[in-house]
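User: Hey, quick favor. My workstation is busy. Could you predict this chain's structure for me?
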Amino acid sequence: MEVKAAAVEIIGTADATYPLQKKGHTPEFLREIAHLRPRSNLFGCVFRVRSRLAFAVHHSFRNGVSRMSTRRSSPAATAKAPVSCSASHPRSEEPAPAGGRRNRLRQGFFRRPTYLTVSGQLEAEAFACALSKVYTFGPTFRAENSNTSRHASEFWMIEPEMAFCDLRGNMGLAEEFVKYLIRDVRNALREDLELFAKFVDKGLLERLDFVLDRPFQRVSYTEAVELLTQSGHKFEYPVEYGTNSSRNTSAI
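Assistant: No problem, here it is.
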């Protein structure tokens, strides 16, 4: 239904003091007015695309794959990011007496060292042994000491776990998943992507179509090492067969 106003009363006008004006604003400036940022064209598109992609993630796994909601905090974690419940009531190592409310507060909510989990993989693996095909999708945390431009301490991650799946099936799933998300957002939010292509990334639409129209290339580890060593490119860490992958990943 469409609402037709019988009368309109102007409460106030947006003068020169209003942060959002009819001109382009940098992302750095918009971060300073986070409460108004979603009203800008750029971030309106960003949040619509993000919402659509999250929906597409679940829809892509709809055929026989069960979603698992795994915990975000645990007494044990590989990369430890401790959880603190109250700065005014730090956790104490002393056990709280029965009915001792003050000591319980001092111990903190969990009453033991608790950390943010780095992923839901461990629990998803257990579920996959029972339900065959599962996935998790939610916030993920990283606590390792990394200062690269690609490092994020918090992000959302998709983790499928499937029983009776080999490496070839895993690669096929990844290709199908990426193409499904691109195709979905291309069809549903065409105008938003066109705004990105106009003001943010001129070659965005061409790259997305490139991914959709061509099969993903697959090479063995041996072939990948040969391609790199024969590329003529000088790497910060020389690429050799069997070299520690964690060192070479950033260099490659």
